[in-house]
Amino acid sequence: MNNYNCIVVLGPTASGKTKFACNLAFYLNGEIISADSRQVYKHLNIGTGKDLEEYTVKGTKIPNHLLDVCEPNEQFFLHDFVKLLHESFTDIQSRNKLPIICGGTGLYLDALHTDYSFTQVPENYNLREKLNQLSKAELIELLKQYPSEENRKQEVDLNSVKRIIRGIEIADYFKTHKEIQKTKLPYKPKYFGIKVSKEVRNKRIDERLKQRLQNGLIEEVEGLLKNGITHQRLEFLGLEYKFISYYLQKLITKEDLYTQLSTAIHQYAKRQMTWYRRMEKNGTKIEWVDANEVDKVASSLIKSTD
Fold first, then answer.
1. Cα–Cα distances in Å, from 159 out to 93, 140, 218, 272?
2. Which residues contact 15 (CB under 8 A, 6 or more apart)?
């Protein structure tokens, strides 16, 4: 009998997780749930690497969930992901199919084993307005000033200003409100990580970036601007959208665009790996496999159910 009811495929950007997950879904009668914080947005296709063609395996369309569920000018919050993850998971299971969660957003992956009931805490716009005036260092210091009981249940990514602000918002809420009702998580995941050396990963990132710039990435961002997305919003969407926004505003040259964006993506991949190592340190067992080992992994999983 299986001791899991879903599979998680994780790995750094450009590791080949989407292709691996879709092939695994083909063999195991599965459906994909995306755990990527930018692929939830419509019209952000090239920059977020949706790679929609990979959802067709040997002529079979692999069903996917949590792609294109939000307009790019709207904000998609962690509590939105938690809600849609649960709905998709329940729906897939009800049809006797296997949920395969694929993505590299650490907080989304943590939602499989961490109770994020606190994501129900409403936004405090007055507080946010004040916090937006502070530097990252000042925000971190302010967060530390809240008593530990107000900071419980949340692990704040101190690399992200928006996460720190949200952390302060949540801690501030618990100063005057009672405990939020906890929810029992239904997930029993089995984790597979796509292993790739740092050298190969960096080479893939650079090659992929060149391809995307040649194949319409800048035009995708220009289209977003024509449809009313602001440069401020593009900056918030990060990485490709931020740096191309700078380029289109003539704040950086075409050469700067490539070198600065490449560096930023390398740094992002490194942060992803740090997050996965922390998951392992905290007790999550991740089986690291090569991206071309999907047949072997699928065969092993099928045998374990016989």
1. 36, 10, 27, 12
2. 194, 195, 196, 201, 204, 291
Q: What is the pLDDT of residues 230-252, one digit of tens each?
A: 999 999 999 999 999 999 999 99
Q: Are 98 and 8 within 8 A, CB to CB?
A: no
User: What number of CA atoms fall less than 13 Å from residue 179's CA on the CB side?
Assistant: 7
Q: For residue 111, with 0-12 CB atoms within 10 Å meaning exposed, 13-18 middle and 19 or more buried, which class applies?
A: buried
Asked whether residue 277 is assigned to any structural domain, the reply reads no
User: Do 168 and 135 belong to one domain?
Assistant: yes
Confidence (pLDDT) at 204: 96
Q: Please indicate, yes or no, whether residues 215 and 154 belong to a single structural domain of this protein.
A: no
Q: Which secondary structure element, helix H or strand E, spans residue 239, and what is its range? A: helix 239-248
Does residue 209 sit in the same domain as residue 262? yes
* CATH number of domain containing 264: 1.10.287
Residue 175: predicted pLDDT: 81
- Residue 83 lies inside a defined structural domain of this protein: no
Q: Are residues 159 and 214 in the same domain?
A: no
Count of C-beta atoms within a 10 Å radius of residue 285: 9
Contact 94, 88 (CB under 8 A): no
How far apart are alpha carbons 95 and 176 in whole angstroms? 43
| 96-135 pLDDT, tens digit each | 999 999 999 999 999 999 887 766 777 888 999 999 999 9
- Per-residue pLDDT band for 68 (boundaries 50, 70, 90) equals very high
The single residue listed with the structure tokens 């920059």 is 47
Task: Print the domain residue range for 244.
Answer: 198-269
Provide the number of structural domains found in the chain. Answer: 2
